[in-house]
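Lab notebook, bench 4. Still working through the backlog of constructs that have no structural model yet. Next entry is a single chain of 169 residues. Request: give me the structure tokens for it.
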Amino acid sequence: MLNNYLKIALRTLLRFKGFAIINLFGLSLGLTAGIHIMIFVADEVSYDKFHVNRDRIYRVLTQFYTPENGTGDTGMEGNAWPIGDILRRDFPEVESVVYIRGASFLHINHDDKRIRQNVQFASPEFLTMFTFPLVKGDPSTALNHPYSIVITKTWRKNSSATRMHSTKQ
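Model written out:
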């Protein structure tokens, strides 16, 4: 019976070639779009799942509203330093606030070599809020002192690895 259905389908496809090509193209385009959407959603949902408190971590963004149209079409990833104090004071749900600021590439001298590195400045609470695995050291004291540094495991292998410096002054 299945063999009969396949014969009829093949005969219909050969008889109406234009119709078959349009249908097969639409089917393949729909499947491709569906697979891409599924991969995108799976990637977005799985991002940084290794953090222990991932369900309690939020990012605060600054949105600017223009008086002309009343909408906020421009925004910034960074916030001013007082935002954290205001959030802690006005919202008892806020347990901790972390500031992260990207720096441009810096040049580091190491073993008579000049290495260009991407550096991120972070407040000391960074390693207690985010659970990045450390090879050595204590995350609760790693960024407590000024000019302290955390070096990623790939630093020696990759010259553009990210480092975090303490923002304490």
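Notes after review: The two ends are 80 Å apart (CA to CA). The chain has four helices and six strands. Flag for follow-up if needed.
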